[in-house]
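Moderator note: this is an archived Q&A kept for reference. The question asked for a predicted structure of one protein chain; the sequence and the answer are reproduced below.
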Amino acid sequence: MELVTRSQGGDHDAFAALYNAHHGTVSRYISFRVPDRHLAEDIASETFVRAFRRISSYSNHGRPFIAWLTTIARNLIIDHFRMLGRRGEVFALPVDDYHSESWQEQQWLTSVPSAEDEVMDSLERERVRRALSALSPQQRNVLLLQVWGGLKNGEIAERLEIGSTASVRSTRHRAIAALRSALNTKVGAAA
């Protein structure tokens, strides 16, 4: 907290120390959610630029500094994919953003995962990516626009030219059922 206070007072060396302490965790958080390495690096850089510009607005309120940084990163990721959706681009959003503000996640963010944990996380993300890729493009885009893009049913219907919000709900329901089936089948087959 001392480094944050010093940074808020204009101490650039203190902010550099915060950067060095948290860059790896923020980069890992982003890379788990953004499949393109260059885009992930850009978002990580922008996260720290925004943090530097807004450091005076940070206040602890019981949340660690890393939680504030990951919130900035998460918002940048969402903004990026929303922008793609507004341009009508069909895109593949990250499939593993299970973001929450829970204490368990904050504990995960501040800990260094073991090599075994990283391998298991990577395998799980790959399993979910494969299950998502098995969906029809329309099902995948409806899910991704809603879950990771934060769009409402009406916005999705308009962007994907589906027709109605009822069609979006129906497509989402079928997509979730297909994902559930694919993931449960693969779990059962591995046992």
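Archived answer notes: The mean pLDDT is 77.
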